[in-house]
Design goal:
The chain has 326 residues and is an alpha+beta fold. The chain has seven helices and twelve strands.
Length: 326
């Protein structure tokens, strides 16, 4: 790598949704990062107050981009957080749910909390729009190697993203206004199961969970236990789908121990700003995280309290000398 003597006000490493949200950049033709793939759930329904507060503005910033670019206990906490922040929601018991949303079998005793503002966020389109649209700062692209330390254990998760064929085309489609969903504490497995209506692949609905894996084993994984769990779930809850996945795609993302983000300056090199560990639910926050990271990089006061996202929460007994990268 040739050393450069050029001086920059700010350097962004990484051009997924979070990095791209603070810059203007050419489209980078690569499809295996955690910001890639065609869709994500967008929602305000979080247990944590700080995520709900951030998503309020994140919705506004996504709307701005849209205009300028053109075209268990956890459940109780979730309900309480939504009520505290006056997020429009509707709670439906099993029978009411079936009247409004057919072709879904809820477990006896279960209900559904409907986030009336939730929907499908077109991840690929959003990433391209952020990278090419001129509403963000002009930058230039540098290529450089860097090393990722794994001192604190495993932090990569692999998910098998499964698409299931509709028995009757359109049953679970965006056109029929079938909702996105997250099943908490399902009978089939330890992880939440989520789904998005058929859209990316005509006639195929996305239903998935997540599963830990070694990053080097991503394309060698032979254990299909997670898919077996999904087969049982689809058979029980989504009778309008063929209970064998028609398409299986794999992707990875970085997770933190508490599944909250890292938005902070480097503990030793204070002029290095880190946005990472989005733990599979960060894309919807892209515009607001881009804003926060740029505020940190430019020495401005962040728009939100970033204490839940400090690196030090994972190393409470360690102290660092502050330096600057020259």
């Amino acid at each position: 790598l040739e050393m450069s003597s050029e001086i920059y006000d700010c350097i962004v490493i990484g051009a997924g949704i979070q990095g791209s949200a603070g810059q203007k950049q050419f489209v980078l033709p690569h499809s295996r990062g955690s910001s890639h793939g065609q869709t994500r759930v967008i929602r305000k329904t979080y247990e944590e107050d700080f995520y709900v507060q951030m998503m309020q503005e994140s919705y506004e910033l996504w709307a701005q981009l849209e205009r300028e670019a053109g075209n268990g206990e956890g459940f109780s906490h979730l309900k309480a957080t939504m009520q505290r922040h006056k997020i429009p929601t509707v709670f439906l018991e099993k029978q009411e749910f079936s009247q409004h949303i057919p072709n879904v079998n809820l477990t006896d005793g279960n209900g559904a909390l409907i986030d009336t503002h939730a929907g499908v966020l077109y991840a690929d389109r959003a990433l391209r729009a952020v990278q090419v649209n001129k509403i963000w700062l002009q930058t230039s692209l540098l290529k450089a190697p860097f090393t990722l330390s794994r001192e604190y254990g495993h932090f990569l998760v692999k998910i098998n993203v499964c698409y299931w064929k509709e028995k009757i085309p359109g049953t679970y489609s965006v056109g029929q206004r079938f909702p996105c969903f997250i099943e908490m504490e399902s009978k089939e497995g330890e992880y939440d199961i989520y789904g998005l209506p058929s859209n990316e692949y005509p006639g195929l609905m996305k239903v998935s969970d997540r599963r830990d894996t070694e990053p080097d084993e991503r394309d060698k994984q032979t254990d299909r236990g997670d898919i077996d769990i999904l087969v049982r779930y689809v058979t029980r809850c989504l009778p309008g789908l063929v209970p064998v996945p028609a398409v299986v795609e794999s992707c990875m993302y970085m997770v933190t121990p508490d599944r909250n983000f890292v938005l902070d300056s480097h503990s030793t090199y204070g002029n290095t700003i880190i946005g990472a560990g989005f733990s599979g639910h960060g894309l919807k926050f892209g515009p607001i995280i881009g804003k926060l990271l740029s505020q940190l990089a430019m020495g401005q006061v962040p728009s939100y309290d970033l204490s839940p996202f400090r690196i030090q929460r994972f190393m409470p007994d360690r102290h660092f000398e502050s330096k600057s990268i020259q």
